[in-house]
Amino acid sequence: MDFTLTPEIEALRQQVRTFVTREVIPLEAGAANYDAHENLKESVVAELRAKARARGLWGFQLPKARGGLELGVVGMAALYEEAARSPFGPVAFNCAPPDDGNMIVLNKILSEPQKDRWLQPLIDGKVRSAFAMTEPDGGCGSDPGLTYTRAEQVGDKWIINGRKWFITGAEGAQTFILVAKTSEDERKGLTAFLFDKDQPGWEIVRRIPIMGPEEHGGHCELRFDGLEIPDENRLLNVGDGLKVTQIRLGTARLTHCMRWLGLAKRCLEIAGDYVEQRMSFGTPLAGHEGVQWMLGDAAKEIHIGRLLTMNAAWKLEQGDFARKEISIAKIQVADTLHKAADTAIQLCGARGYSKDTLLEWIYRYARQARLVDGASEIHKMVLSKYYLQEKQEFFRWGVGASSQWMNSDTG
């Protein structure tokens, strides 16, 4: 693939970078801008979103007909990375999880009337959403087959009973995608549904405290006790719950990588500025060979992650599922984010460990990267399965049209 950006995407990338530098990063230093969960207050977010929309920087991943920019996955990779130079950038442009992944899957599978009801409010930034799949007490995590939350059909309604936990964004969400068990079929036993926060028959049990800073709406435990969902709010066919999950997670895993790369680059920005100024034994820290090794190694890993992410984005745009490429990128970039944060803290010393910079925030946030949307070990298992099936074909190159050189007379 060609790793160059179109002039249009590059111009937008520069605009996003400028917006984050001027409008978002300055907010990080103001304690009054934060809520109790180490995220920006909703009032601050609302102001940022209004500014972003006014400048045409909204919904990079969404259809133009519905108010987005419809840039494609490659364009998303370039802009998401810039947006996430601050952890609060993606929410300003409406490309933060879990709304980002939810909007992408709903745009792919809903009818137009359904999009008017469920998708458009998300695109407009009027509501937030959550994706409810993971369960406690032996329920599903990486193995969807362990789902025990059940949906029983009664007439033209489905009755939901069960529990979910670590549901990102649930406390502030209006729109929910729910995956529940509808039969014992190993491949077709799950079905996905839409429901609204205001429907009776469910509750948020608690907002689960976590090690790191939280997304808006936290990570919550939910209980379902007779929630009624009309059959018209079923997603795809009965038994297509796993399909809905796969459609959502494919691109969503990669958008995580795009954002994490922005955070990793920000770590090096902070560390780079510091080591150029901080003196040690008569020389700036940047002049010491050991410091150069650390910075160079982290920069190398970030660039590897960028190439892997962009390659997977390109394959998705070509209509490929890119499952191997996404798994490889997810493993690499999750490790890289942690390495970049750890390296930056080490280089900044006590200042990096303090709250005078964003590094300790990013460090705690980074630990989840190797867990969310499939633990790194699960992705390695996926890659092993592909390798054992394909052997040397695992490493095959894509082949395009014949080149001018091949078609010429070289005799």
Spatial order of the strands forming the largest sheet:
1-4-5-8
Indicate the overall shape.
Answer: globular
- Regions with pLDDT < 50 over 5+ consecutive residues? none
CATH superfamily membership of the largest domain, which one?
Butyryl-CoA Dehydrogenase, subunit A, domain 3
Q: What is the gyration radius calculated from CA atoms? A: 22 Å
How far apart are the termini? 29 Å
> Which CATH-level-2 architecture of the largest domain?
Up-down Bundle
- Estimate the mean pLDDT confidence: 95
- Please provide the ordered H/E string of secondary-structure elements: HHHHHHEEEEEEEEHEEHHHHHH
Count of helical stretches: 13
Please report the total strand number as a whole number.
10
Per CATH, the class of the largest domain reads Mainly Alpha
